[in-house]
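Q: I'm a student working through a structural biology exercise. My instructor gave each of us a protein and asked us to get a predicted structure, then write a short paragraph describing it. Mine is ABC transporter-like protein. I'm not confident about reading structure output yet, so if you can add a plain explanation after the tokens, that would really help. Here is the sequence I was given:
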Amino acid sequence: MEINDLSKSFILHNQRKNIHAVSNITITVKKGEFIGIIGKSGSGKSTILKSIYGTYRVQEGDIWYDSSRFGAINLAKATEREMIYLRKHEIGYVSQFLNVMPRTTARQLVTGAILEMGQTREMANIETEKILGHFEIGKELWDSYPATFSGGEKLRLNIARAMVKRPRLLLLDEPTASLDHDSKVKVKTLLEQLMNEGTTMLGIFHDLEFMNRLVTREYSMQNGCFTQAIQKI
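A: Happy to help. First, here is the predicted structure for ABC transporter-like protein. I'll explain a few features afterward.
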């Protein structure tokens, strides 16, 4: 993936203000790399991930992604149909929050994600139970609605749903927030597995110890701009 001169602003109409979120972000990410981004809250980190995922539409710049279906595609100009396909089949996103359809169980969420990738129902059921067990989501919760889960349980389910699809590109927005040590170890194990399989990753972290054990490059952000890049591996 290659990001060139990405800029994004938000207009507050009621206050007649134009807020610059990120400016002139340029970065090249090779297949299988894991890029870590750090910085204070409000520095623009999440805006980069949401611009890649298509949640935000950017005013300036290009986001070139090497898609298995579309080839080189500019995510900054992709159609909604193209982005829906990419989110289902190629690009995963893990946030601190779990937004799902009501009355959908934890098992259904993960199984549905696997079925979207073309797996059989039998294999989807096996993989669902495997990853829910890996993240120690109790069996008594598998057929429950996530609205009843604790914050940590929701985050673990969110991670499980994204990782089980083995995406080509995985975006991680504070993936270890509210997780205990044992859960972080389980996340690390699966991230390492995905890296070995060639998944490219960009992640936002406040847990620097966790990040430093995984990322190949680290970028610091301040006031919407990259201020420093450190090669880790």
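A: Here are two points you could use in your paragraph. The chain has a mean pLDDT of 90. The helical segments are 45-53, 80-89, 106-116, 121-134, 151-163, 181-196, 208-212. It's a good idea to check both against the output above yourself.
Q: Great, thank you!
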